[in-house]
Design goal:
With 642 residues, this protein is mainly beta. Among the domains are: 213 residues, Alpha/Beta hydrolase fold, catalytic domain (Rossmann fold, 3-Layer(aba) Sandwich), CATH 3.40.50.1820; 101 residues; 128 residues, TolB, C-terminal domain (Neuraminidase), CATH 2.120.10.30. It is globular and about 75 Å long.
Length: 642
């Protein structure tokens, strides 16, 4: 059932850059002022400009400078120097300190042609014209989630829980919605919608139409969502805060979808599921200016993509799963009026082509691997560009493929994880690459994958000076033969004849792998433990693996049980190696990993110690949208919740 580690396995383990003698300390890892950055991200921050050039954002403390780079000659010319940017904001009315603080945060919202950006300075919103090195106050007062219209003539934003717009040329403001309150959010996401559907940290719930004449927006009514009291003890005296939080089975916010014109007249989209409780999980527009929206039922077992004109909508695609249905991206439209659609319908995520009539033409990608990101379609070359796990479930590569599903070409050469950004013509891309042994490096490639320039090797002399343990990526099979991906960090001076305590990290949540052939920010912590004679073990149970969504379906309505069985199989593999001290294994995880830590300690005796961070100790107390996706409603799955 299990296999012993062989010398070949350890020989395959990549030796990290460090071959020195220095040791890590808790101070160098975590002290507020003495912390050392041994391996960070590449320092060169680049993005493509619409004309094919590159823009570099250069930061030094509170100073920010913008440069233009020629991707062919690498000639560098200034776009906006730090002193100019600071002076422009001060000349526009900002104080020197507030301008420095805003630039230090570095949160800029660019217009479509990358010639101007918005930046929040103190309580106001400023517009910076890069070509003129000038700035002006565009909005006085708070303006959340400010977003340019596609023609760059308008900026929409939130003030409180209502939606506003301002004309860029004149600075004329207009309120677009009314009725926003403590319980009604117009154009703003509530907590559970942003946390579990649209992405943590972003609260924008409005979307410009392609012609810049309309906005789609969600209105969320939280009146029935239960209120909790939280104590904020970061200040003295403490402050009592009220928060609306729907637990599993509690009332969710009621969502309505509307469109409004620039005068603020709203037309509401008729509810296509009257009498059913649904979630609106995606909103956007097609190139013809027709509204797109994706709906799911409350427990997320199906998803409907609908296209609307006015108050009516028609069904384009229906997706349904035997367990739960993931939220899917909106379609990407093709020049012929058809579109590309991503789906997990086979148990793996792939791309499908639909005609302009909305009928399926066929699969573009296929296989026992997953498409992780679609970068776009090159109409001139007739090719789709995407990132996928085709080479390895622990890696990520960039690919090119014809729409007929033929000519699959892997563009990235080195094994590991490649995060790529293509230019508009797909003639070149930026690649941030790392593997388990190499911190992220940045390079420039042509459209065929050939490296043109190593931009940032991201060398770290500090890392090279460290004495580091061997790292091994390998597969361990469960009792029924599923290949679990695992990571092992061996102690310094490892001797297989000795016994070593083991620190085991896990997350284990559905379709959320922890083992990747990529540089991890946790690696220095693992190496600190290795320097202190402790082995580190990370094992992805099947439901958390990157082997297709179908691998996770076994946990449906009974979280914890299958995950623990798989982890116990990994535990048995460790025991079979002979060197692991099975009486000294510590389990550690955060969030879902905290749940699994507490579950494992209360449902087995395999671990000596557990450190549970932010654990879900009772699924009936966790938020509705996440929990019900996997567990269903408490009233319909009493045994599973118990």
């Amino acid at each position: 059932m299990f296999f012993r580690a062989t010398p070949a396995c350890l020989l395959l383990a990549a030796s990290l850059l460090g071959q020195g003698t220095e040791r890590l300390t808790l101070e160098t890892l975590a002290h507020p002022t003495k912390r050392v950055t041994y391996a960070g991200m590449p320092a060169t921050r680049l993005e493509w400009l619409p004309d094919g050039g590159l823009m570099q954002t250069q930061r030094e403390g509170e100073k920010v400078a913008l440069w233009r780079l020629d991707p062919v000659t690498w000639a560098k010319t200034p776009l906006l120097e730090s002193e100019q940017l600071q002076a422009a904001l001060v000349a526009a009315g900002a104080t020197d300190d507030s301008a420095k603080a805003a630039l230090g945060r570095g949160t800029f919202t660019w217009n479509t042609n990358r010639k101007a950006f918005l930046v929040a300075v103190a309580a106001d919103l400023y517009l910076v014209d890069v070509t003129k090195a000038a700035a002006r106050r565009l909005v006085q007062g708070k303006a959340d989630e400010a977003t340019f219209s596609p023609d760059d003539a308008q900026v929409a934003y939130l003030r409180g829980n209502d939606l506003y717009r301002v004309e860029v040329a004149t600075g004329k403001e207009m309120r677009l919605t009314t009725g926003g309150s403590e319980t009604v959010f117009n154009g703003r996401l509530d907590w559970v919608y942003q946390e579990e559907l649209y992405g943590r940290g972003g609260f924008k719930a409005f979307w410009w139409s392609p012609d810049s004449k309309r906005l789609a927006y969600l209105s969320l009514d939280e009146t029935k969502v239960p209120v909790f009291t939280l104590m904020d003890d970061r200040t003295q005296p403490q402050k009592a805060l009220k928060a609306r939080y729907p637990k599993a089975g509690d009332p969710n916010p009621i969502a309505r979808l509307g469109t409004l014109d620039l005068a603020g007249a709203t037309e509401w989209v008729a509810d296509p599921y009257a009498g059913q409780e649904t979630l609106i999980v995606q909103v956007g527009w097609d190139p013809a200016g027709r509204l797109l929206a994706a709906f799911q039922n409350r427990v997320q077992s199906w998803l409907d993509l609908r296209r609307g004109e006015g108050a009516k909508s028609t069904l384009l695609i229906h997706e349904e799963s035997r367990a739960w249905q993931e939220r899917l991206p909106l379609p990407r439209f093709l020049p012929d009026g058809g579109f590309l659609w991503e789906s997990d319908r086979t148990g793996h995520k792939h791309v499908y082509r639909y005609g302009k009539d909305g009928k399926l033409i066929g699969a573009v990608t296929s296989g026992d691997w997953d498409v992780k990101a679609v970068h776009g379609f090159d109409a001139k070359g007739g090719a789709l560009y995407f990132s996928a796990t085709e080479r390895s479930p622990t890696g990520l590569d960039a690919y090119r493929l014809g729409l007929n599903g033929k000519g699959l070409t892997r563009l990235s050469e080195k094994s590991g994880a490649h995060s790529v950004k293509f230019n508009a013509s797909f003639s070149a891309y930026l690649d941030t690459w790392s593997d388990i042994a190499t911190p992220p490096q940045q390079s420039l490639h042509d459209g065929a994958g050939k490296q043109l320039r190593l931009i940032d090797a991201n060398p770290s002399e500090k890392l090279k000076s460290l004495q580091l343990g061997k790292v091994c990526l390998q597969q361990v099979k469960t009792r029924d033969g599923f290949p679990m991906e695992t990571l092992l960090v061996l102690p310094i001076g490892f001797d297989s004849a000795k016994k070593y305590p083991v620190f085991q990290y896990l997350y284990s949540g559905p379709a959320a792998p922890s083992v990747r052939n990529a540089w991890s920010r946790e690696m220095m912590w693992y190496q600190f433990l290795a320097q202190n004679g402790i082995a580190v073990w990370v094992c992805d149970n099947r439901s958390s693996s990157a082997r297709g969504l179908a691998s996770a379906y076994g946990v449906h309505r009974n979280l914890g049980a299958q995950e623990l069985q798989d982890q116990l199989d990994g535990h048995a593999w460790l025991k079979a190696q002979g060197w692991a001290d099975m009486d000294r294994i510590c389990l550690n995880g955060w969030s879902y990993g905290g749940f699994m830590t507490t579950y494992a300690l209360t449902h087995s005796k395999a671990w000596k110690l557990g450190i549970a961070g932010a654990p879900i100790t009772d699924w009936s107390l966790y938020d509705s949208i996440y929990t019900e996706r996997y567990m269903g409603l408490p009233a319909e799955n009493k045994a599973g919740y118990e």
